[in-house]
Amino acid sequence: AQTVTQSQPEMSVQEAETVTLSCTYDTSESDYYLFWYKQPPSRQMILVIRQEAYKQQNATENRFSVNFQKAAKSFSLKISDSQLGDAAMYFCAYGGGNEKLTFGTGTRLTIIP
Amino acid sequence: DTEVTQTPKHLVMGMTNKKSLKCEQHMGHRAMYWYKQKAKKPPELMFVYSYEKLSINESVPSRFSPECPNSSLLNLHLHALQPEDSALYLCASTQLAGGRRETQYFGPGTRLLVL
Predict the structure, then answer these.
(1) pLDDT tens-digit readout, B33-90
(2) Residue A40: closest C-alpha in chain B
(3) Which of A14, A89, B33, B71 is 20 to 30 A from B48, comparing alpha carbons?
(4) Yes or no, beta carbons of B108 and A44 under 8 Å apart
(5) Rounded to whole angstroms, how far apart are CA atoms B90 and A15?
(6) How far is the C-alpha of B69 from the C-alpha of A38, rounded, in Å?
(7) A55, A84 Cβ separation under 8 angstroms
(8) Interacting residues of B59 by C-beta distance below 8 A, sequence separation 6+
(9) CA distance A70 to B97
(10) How far is CA A57 from CA A19, A40, A105, in A?
(11) Alpha-carbon distance A20 to A97, whole Å?
(12) A99 and B50 in contact by Cβ < 8 A?
């Protein structure tokens, strides 16, 4: 079974600074996707970014980018130029050979004005 | 358009009540999901419907009864719930059923309180 580990329950960052959220996973599959979802206090889960395991190039979406290290099974999220609206719970998730997503336990990100 | 809608936003019910949660998407997605989420925890999968057929039931108590009347609509019927069932209930959908590695798009959730 796949597992996803987020070792940072809480993080904080000064507005306009850069922060990196960590995620590691364990799997025996070779073909899978990885996701970062954001859940603000409004509670809707919003897709931030996704990475296909077969792609070596790290995914980027505006201020959000990932550092995908397949051999190390690591998938960290970097947020540049942090904004107040980035404050949320961030979940790392694994999507493999079935219909299920495996979520990590989440990292609560606070933005300090 | 990646919108999944859920109604109601909030629901308070007694342990003897019967209520239903509704989820709708018009993206042509063929797989739909129900999740339960407790505070400060990740979502827990409850049910998956693929092509309007129940494909996954994660050993959910029978007081939760899912229904997929058509490819756009997913219901969760609630009966004789317990206070520990109070949670945020999230619906999600993916484009393809059998959904290998598909992106799931989530609705805003229904906050349920069982008294």
Answers:
(1) 999 999 999 999 999 998 999 988 999 999 999 999 999 999 999 999 999 999 999 9
(2) B108
(3) A89
(4) yes
(5) 30
(6) 30
(7) no
(8) none
(9) 26
(10) 20, 28, 26
(11) 28
(12) yes
Tally of CA atoms within 13 A in the half-sphere of B82 that contains its CB: 4
Q: What is the 3-state secondary structure (H, E, C) of B16-43?
A: CCEEEEEEEECCCCCEEEEEEECCCCCC
Give the gap in angstroms from C-alpha B62 to the nearest C-alpha of chain A: 21
Q: How far apart are CA B10 and CA B36, in angstroms?
A: 14
Residue A52: other Cβ atoms inside 10 A: 14
Q: How many residues does chain B have?
A: 115
Say how far apart CA A68 and CA A94 lie, in whole Å.
Answer: 13
Give helix then strand counts, H and E, for chain B. Answer: 0, 11
Who contacts B39 (Cβ-Cβ below 8 Å, separation ≥6)? B88
CA distance B44 to chain A (A): 9
Gap between the Cα atoms of B6 and A104, Å rounded: 24
Q: Which tens digits make up the pLDDT trace of A18-39?
A: 999 999 999 998 889 999 999 9
